[in-house]
Amino acid sequence: MKPITGTELCRLLELNGWMLQRIAGSHHIYAKSGERKVLSIPVHGNRDLKLGLASRLARDANLKW
User: Fold this and answer.
1) Can you say how many angstroms the Cα of residue 4 is from the centroid of all Cα atoms in its chain?
2) Contact (Cβ atoms closer than 8 angstroms) between residue 41 and residue 30
3) Strand order in the sheet with 38-42
4) Which of 18, 20, 41, 45 could disulfide-link to 13, CB 3.0 to 4.6 Å?
């Protein structure tokens, strides 16, 4: 798995049907109709997400990269 920033992950989520619900501080909250999960993506400038967090969010959103 390659490193990814919070901004890049947000862009991937939006391309896969997830919609931005709100922004709480530096966290972007995404939801998708038909999904019970709500994803909280930390967007801290240009910093990469830690690999464990990125893989967990990708698995929860059914993303592959």
Assistant:
1) 10
2) yes
3) 19-24, 27-31, 38-42
4) 18
Structure tokens at 36: 């019970």
As given in the structure block, the two tokens for residue 46 are: 């240009």
Contact criterion met (CB below 8 Å) for 14 and 31: no
| pTM of the complete model | 0.91
Place of tokens 């798995």: 1
Q: Strand pairing of 27-31 and 38-42?
A: antiparallel
pLDDT tens figures, 15-49:
999 999 999 999 999 999 999 999 999 999 999 99
Please state, in angstroms and rounded to a whole number, the distance separating the CA atoms of residues 4 and 41: 12
